[in-house]
Every structure is written in structure tokens, then in C-alpha cells.
Amino acid sequence: MREPVFTGACTALVTPFTHSGAVNYDQFARLIDRQLEGGVDAVCVCGTTGESATLSVREHIRLVKACVRRVNGRARVIAGAGSNDTAAALRLSRHAQDAGADALLLVTPYYNKATQDGLIQHYTTIADRVEVPILLYNVPSRTGVSFTAETYQVLSQHPNINGVKEASGNFSLLSHTRALCGPDFHIWSGNDDQVVPMMSLGAEGVVSVAANLAPEAMVRMSHLCLEGDFQEAAHLQLRYQALMDALFIEVNPIPIKAALNLAGWDAGSLRLPLCALSDSHREVLRKAMEEAGLLQKPAA
Predict the structure, then answer these.
(1) 208 in helix, strand or coil?
(2) pLDDT value, residue 295
(3) Cα separation of 167 and 146, whole Å?
(4) Active site annotation includes 65
(5) What is the model's pLDDT at position 297?
(6) CA 152 to CA 157: how far, in whole Å?
(7) Residues 181, 97: Cα–Cα separation, whole Å
């Protein structure tokens, strides 16, 4: 049986920017160190949370290299390499492989709205031409297309396709996929607020936005599930529910960058067309962070 790329918690890393809008590699290194200190099992660089859509190819390649060097074997490194152009996704995948990434995260082609056969051909074309494992990424709210369980079943037969980051929120799809593909096709939650229910159905962990801010909590939650203690994991899930909601009060990664800045990190701004969190939502986020013990409440 194929071993999963990781079990437990993987942080979907933000990409810090300087005040001039360049990548802040010093802060990026600090953020990686914080995740490793928090015990995460893997990190994902250049994903959606890392604003991959507005990174240049040169920045993308350099960030993957910087991440691999900083992690230095202390956790698995998963590199985002998706595109709506199969040739471009293949180029990014090969660059990430050459940089030393342990695996690739490939989102479904967006905007094109490929058929299920097109998805199969897209992923098979890439998987045939790389040597590191591939994690599929299903997030139809962003891309406009979703895998079916039957497509997962076909792709699961490829030795280089390890599993899927499933962020559709569709539990029927999850259960049908588990039934069709069995335990050799690994599944990870792509939604922080669904870790416990998804892992109760056989998911192996989470690719987490919240872990940027609270790595220990996401590690403990996912590891409790791996140990079969779903009751305690559920208590933890509910404790952080308000925070998880607040981190998606606007489109990711707007709130997580605001949260990191509130917590004293220099995550910087966002690249247009993403823009700063609204003042009203910032107060909601601040309150959720205070209630989660991640931000000191102001003196009365």
C-alpha cells in the first residue's frame, strides 16, 4: 500500500511581502521556523494561501528553493504547482522537483472548466513526467470545477498520484471516494473547520490555513484524530471554531495575513486584486483571536 505524503498537519504557508511589495524572504524563513517549532508534519509553499496566483515564475521557483533549504528535512515540503495550462503546471512541477520538494500540490485547472476526461488527461500528463508524488487539490468554489469520485478512482491507479486535498465541503463526495478508492488513495481536509468530521471518515490530516497562526492547535487536533480520540479532537475543533470562521470572513489569504500582522508578525500586505481586510471584519477577527488566546485583550 502507498504511504501518505504526510499524516497530521500541514501548514499552507503565507508569502510575506515587504512594504515595497517584494517577497520578504527573512520573514518567510521566520514563519517556517515557527511552524516547525509548533510541530507541523509538513508545509505547503506557493499554494493559494501563499498568493501563488500573483507570484512570478521566478518568485515561485525561488520560494520553493528557499522553503526546502530552510526546512532542511525537518518536515515534508509540498510545493504548489497548479495551473490552468497543463504545460505550465508541468514546468512548475519539474522546477519544484529539482529544488528538492517532497511532493506537489496541483489544483484543478481553473476557468477552463475541463471535463472529467480533461482532468484525467491533465493529471496523467504531469504524473507521467515527474518522479515525486502528486496531491490533487479539489476546491470548486475557486476553480469552477470538481472531481467526481469516479475520476478519483481512475487517477488513484497512477503510482505517482498519492491522494487529494479535498476542500469541496462535499461529504457525499468524500464518502463515495473512500468507498471507490479504498485506503490506498489518501485524503486530507482542505478546510480547517472540517478536520474532525473528515478524519472520522478516513482523512489523514489537514492542509491548514489556521496553522500559520496556531500550529500547535492544528497539530494536536489532527494527531488526536489519528490516535482515534475524536471526542477530544472535537472539543478542540469547537474551541477554535470562531477563529476558523473569522479566518475566512473574507477570501483567503486576506484574513490570515491580517491575523499574523495583528499577532506581531510582519506578513506585509497583499497583492492586487486582493486588498486589506475591512475595518469591521478586522474587529471580528481581533475578537476571535482574543477568545482563542492568540491576542491579548486590551486593558479595561
Answers:
(1) strand
(2) 81
(3) 10
(4) no
(5) 64
(6) 9
(7) 26
CA distances from 134 to 2, 97, 123 (A): 12, 11, 9
β-strands 103-107, 76-80 pairing: parallel
What are the backbone dihedrals phi and psi of residue 166, each rounded to the nearest 5 degrees, phi first? -100, 110
Q: What is the pLDDT of residue 298?
A: 59
Query: What parts of the chain have a pLDDT lower than 70?
Result: 297-300
Instruction: Decide: 268 and 221 in contact? Cβ < 8 Å.
Output: no
- Determine the Cα–Cα distance for residues 138 and 155; give it in Å rounded to an integer: 13
Selecting among 65, 123, 152, 165, the annotated active-site residue is 165
The single residue of 137, 152, 240, 257 carrying the catalytic annotation is 137
Paired with 249 in beta bridges are none
Beta bridge partners of 97: none
In the residue annotation, 165 being an active-site residue is answered as yes
Please give the pLDDT value at position 299.
52
The SS3 of residue 272 is coil
3-state secondary structure of 199: helix
Provide the 10 A C-beta neighbour count for residue 174: 22
Distances in Å between the Cα of 217 and the Cα atoms of 9, 199, 208, 300 are 10, 16, 11, 28
- Neighbouring-strand partners of residue 205: 8
Q: Which domains does the chain carry?
A: 8-238 (3.20.20.70)
Output the pTM of the full model. Answer: 0.95
Distance of alpha carbon 269 from alpha carbon 17, whole angstroms:
6
